[in-house]
Design a protein that fits this description.
With 297 residues, the protein is an alpha/beta fold. It is 23% helix and 21% strand. It has 7 helices and 11 strands. It has a 6-stranded mixed β-sheet. Strands 3, 4, 6, 7 and 8 form a 5-stranded antiparallel β-sheet that branches. The two termini are 24 Å apart.
Length: 297
Amino acid sequence: MTSYTRRDTLAGAIGIALSTSLASHPVRASSGRSIFKLGIASGDPWPDGVVLWTRLVRDVLATDGGMGDPPVEVTWEVARDERLQDVVRAGVTLAMPEVAHSVHIEVGGLEPGRSYWYRFRAEKTESPIGRTRTAPAPGQQVSRLRFAAAACQHWMYGNWAAYQRMADEDLDFVLHLGDYIYEAPSSSPAAVKQKVRDVPFDVPKTLADYRRMHSLYKTDPAIQMAHAAFPWIAIWDDHDVENDYAGSHAPGRPSTAAFLRQRAAAYQAYWEHMPLRNAQRRWDRTQSSIGAWRSAT
């Protein structure tokens, strides 16, 4: 029997080229004047719903995103069509400063196995229109399942052309297997030769640090397009906190208490910047969507 490692699987899965092009409304990166500078996303698809995400910022690299302390009212809507004429769900929520003015809307009451389109509004501005898709119903026969897998994306060493390709495909979801951010430059000489852009701050240790790092990554136009085009199913890996950490330990970190504070900050920033459910803020349901897809196939 041939065995495959996680990285073997990723090598064959990242940037899957599929035959059908995306026929829906093209999704563009957020404009500089918008408070939706970090884009929009959906994720954790269930048969009856998805999570819609955004984070409001005025200044991408400011500690608080330039939003200050006041909560901000955000409206959202979900429709069956790309022009958002046939709205099936809508609501109002508050983007709160304690979670970096991020929004995680758990939309329910949707039909299984079909596409929907969504949008946010806040402070008299509109987000781009995104497309999402629910999981099939439990037990439903699925004739095809199209997805792309991604991981290990380092800001400094690539322009993420695979995400541009993903956005051109007709996918059911994107599976992200960790290392959404890299906390430090690579020590590999080969990687150093491939550097195409810089990270304008030091290695993150605090919640403010990790928020800035995630914000920087979210400004990339290609990743914004891929987030807005499909729901994502995501889990973190070591570089989302610190290289080679495991449990409560990290190489070269003598103080367990200090590292646990750093890990908690990294986990919170990850949740704030990904389309995850509120329960997943406690890290107890990280593979719920994979289970939903598995039960339907």
